[in-house]
Design a protein that fits this description.
This protein has 447 residues and is an alpha+beta fold. The protein has 2 domains: 176 residues, Creatine Amidinohydrolase, Chain A, domain 1 (3-Layer(aba) Sandwich); 245 residues, Creatinase/methionine aminopeptidase superfamily (Creatine Amidinohydrolase), CATH 3.90.230. The chain contains 13 helices and 17 strands. The strands form 5 sheets. The chain has a 6-stranded mixed beta sheet. A 3-stranded antiparallel beta sheet has the order 7-10-11. Strand 10 and strand 11 form a beta hairpin. Helix 9 crosses helix 10 and helix 11 packs antiparallel against helix 12. The longest helix is centred in the middle third of the chain and has 22 residues. The structure holds manganese (II) ion (MN). The site of manganese (II) ion has 5 residues, from loops.
């Protein structure tokens, strides 16, 4: 009895810790994505591998699951593999088969588990309940399962073949082991997954909102702290602390705090200067919450007051931001740089018809990046740039003007969600964006 209660306390503790670590959507959400994917493969089978811990992308923050694999499984564990195959009618060589999904789990590496903690093993009696897959199996059996499941003598397999993909090596081994029939065609699963991932479900929106709320709080803290003499690094550290305190596991991208000339450097992330009187400070900083990114930029005057020239450029960028929002039409507008429905073009036209540089030239040539990108499991999330923005899309609107000659860079970036009614919702809209609001928010720290 005493042992049992100790064990259950320990179990509760582990469950409590893992719940705090990452919020996971219900198993049914991930299963719905797998069945939706299987309906796009024309009878083909999907095979995907998660990276191993050794391949894990991030030395700094530890293993992070690959986006597509996480999207389909909600599992953060390394070294897994999945198979998804739609229902098949009977053919001359193969009997009819229902929809099939299997999550393959590697056997334990007990010495590795001493370093990075216990992993879910195929022998775990609750592996099916925890992962929500119809079947879980030992990774070692994958070759034989493929021989059993893939139709003969012709099969189509959707996967990721690029050298950088975690699937490339294992697929090569499976080919050597004759897991595939004689006539096997491999196709890229990425476009199919991108077409699903671009439409966020309610659970994803809730996580993106949490990432964004935490990042908005971090920007508020920065607004209260920026002043001449403070370093870019202190602002970056403060913001990471603030969104980390609110549950973000890591920054969604390398934080950018650039003052003076460095406000004009798009991906400046050294963050090594001291903020000076008269500088503008571009802060492009946001956190990742339970695997979902946010992406927010604000530009503020170091001493709490825009100069006349800074204000002029600031208001042109804000005008371009607002013009794009106003022009938005669900099902028509795109993030493409061209075409009659391009929001980029709306912002570019606004910038080109307002203000001039020191040589009397229009300002369009200083808007040197796209207007926005999708946001989700990746800060630059999967999705077709030329496709009309549909309900479920989450994307940034982030015009900018960067004039190195004037040490003057301005970017204003918010995250938007197209809701079920086709309305554009500004998820980061709680943050000040007009020059007035920003000056007001910064007033207390200038004393
Ligand atoms: Mn961005």
């Amino acid at each position: 009895m005493r042992n049992r209660s100790f064990a259950s306390v320990l179990l509760l503790l582990i469950v409590a810790i893992s719940a705090a670590a990452t919020e996971r959507q219900p198993n049914s959400d991930y299963r719905a994505r797998r069945t939706a994917l299987s309906e796009k493969t024309n009878g083909g089978t999907v095979i995907l591998f998660a990276p191993t811990e050794a391949e894990g992308p991030n030395d700094l923050y530890g293993f992070r699951q690959e986006d597509n694999f996480y999207y389909l499984t909600g599992s953060k564990e390394p070294g897994l593999a999945l198979l998804i195959s739609p229902a098949q009618p009977a053919s001359a060589n193969s009997p009819a088969r229902p929809y099939t999904e299997i999550l393959f789990l590697p056997g334990h590496n007990l010495s590795q588990e001493k370093w990075t903690g216990p992993k879910l093993g195929p022998e775990s009696p609750d592996a099916k309940e925890r992962t929500g897959f119809d079947r879980v199996a030992k990774l070692d059996t994958m070759r034989d399962e493929l021989v059993r499941i893939l139709p003969q003598p012709r099969a189509s397999v959707y996967t990721e073949q690029g050298k950088s993909s975690a699937s490339a090596g294992p697929l090569e081994w499976l080919s050597r082991a004759n897991a595939f029939p004689n006539y096997v065609g491999f196709a890229d699963v990425n476009p199919l997954l991108a077409s699903l991932r671009v439409k966020k479900d309610a659970g994803e929106i809730a996580l993106i909102r949490k990432a964004t709320d935490a990042s908005v709080a971090a920007h508020f803290a920065a607004l209260r702290t920026v002043k001449p003499g403070v370093t870019e690094r202190e602002i970056s550290a403060l913001m990471q602390y603030e969104f980390g305190k609110r549950g973000c596991e890591r920054p969604a991208y390398a934080p950018i705090v650039g003052s003076g000339f460095y406000s004009t450097v798009l991906h400046y992330s050294e963050d090594e200067n001291t903020i000076k009187h008269g500088d503008l400070v571009v802060m492009d900083v946001a956190g990742e919450y339970s695997m979902y990114a946010s992406d927010i930029t604000r530009t503020v005057p170091a001493n709490g007051h825009f100069t006349a020239r800074q204000l002029e450029i600031y208001n042109i960028v804000l005008g371009a931001h607002d013009a794009a929002i106003k022009a938005f039409k669900a099902g028509a507008s795109t993030l493409s740089r061209s075409g009659s429905n391009s929001l980029y073009q709306v912002a570019m036209d606004y910038i080109n018809t307002h203000g001039k540089d020191l040589h009397g030239e229009p300002l369009g040539k200083y808007f040197i990046h796209g207007l926005g990108h999708y946001v989700g499991l990746n800060v630059h999330d999967a999705g077709e740039v030329n496709a009309p923005l549909q309900p479920g899309a989450v994307f940034t609107i982030e015009p900018g003007i960067y004039i190195p000659e004037e040490n003057l860079g301005v970017r204003i970036e918010d995250d938007f969600w197209v809701n079920e009614r086709g309305e554009l919702i500004n998820l980061s809209g709680a943050l000040p964006s007009t020059a007035d609001e920003i000056e007001k928010a910064m007033a207390p720290n200038q004393k």
